């Protein structure tokens, strides 16, 4: 005789666990460190802060690399958060999938634009 303790659990929502939790923390730390580095460069610069100063800050190769890494980290950070929101609160699969595809396209477009701006400096 089988005992039924309730219905089977249907797993819906963000179930990626530790990997996504850790990715959110690591990307947040990287973005925070980038902010500190950028603020230090701005606060330690002499003279008025205009386009030339900003272009000078981002013209060095190491700053371009760091900025590129932060852009990628931010994309992943945003994707994990937005995906979890769609998975937790949008129940119809077709709408959720549409929102996820739109989010991916939007984030890739934003990354392309950010990288284009960065390498144009």
Automatic annotation (TrEMBL):
Cofactor: heme
Top-rank lineage group of the source organism: Bacteria
SUPFAM superfamilies in alphabetical order: Fumarate reductase respiratory complex transmembrane subunits (SSF81343)
Pathway noted in the entry: Carbohydrate metabolism; tricarboxylic acid cycle
Compartment(s) of residence: Cell inner membrane
Entry membrane topology: Multi-pass membrane protein
Transmembrane regions listed in the UniProt entry: 26-44, 65-82, 97-119
Keywords, in A-Z order: Cell inner membrane, Cell membrane, Electron transport, Heme, Iron, Membrane, Metal-binding, Transmembrane, Transmembrane helix, Transport, Tricarboxylic acid cycle
Coiled coil location: none
InterPro entries, per database record: SQR/QFR_C/D, Succ_DH_anchor, SuccDH_FuR_B_TM-su
A Pfam family hit: Sdh_cyt
Role played: Membrane-anchoring subunit of succinate dehydrogenase (SDH).
Official protein name in the record: Succinate dehydrogenase hydrophobic membrane anchor subunit
């Amino acid at each position: 005789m089988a005992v039924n303790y309730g219905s089977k659990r249907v797993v819906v929502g963000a179930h990626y666990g530790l990997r996504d939790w850790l990715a959110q923390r690591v990307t947040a730390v990287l973005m925070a460190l980038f902010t500190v580095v950028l603020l230090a460069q701005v606060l330690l610069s002499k003279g008025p802060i205009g386009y030339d100063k900003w272009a000078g800050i981002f013209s060095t190769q190491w700053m371009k690399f760091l900025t590129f890494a932060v852009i990628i980290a931010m994309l992943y950070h945003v994707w994990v958060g937005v995906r979890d929101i769609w998975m937790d609160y949008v129940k119809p699969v077709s709408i959720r999938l549409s929102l996820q595809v739109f989010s991916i396209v939007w984030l890739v477009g934003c990354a392309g634009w950010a990288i284009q701006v960065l390498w144009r400096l």
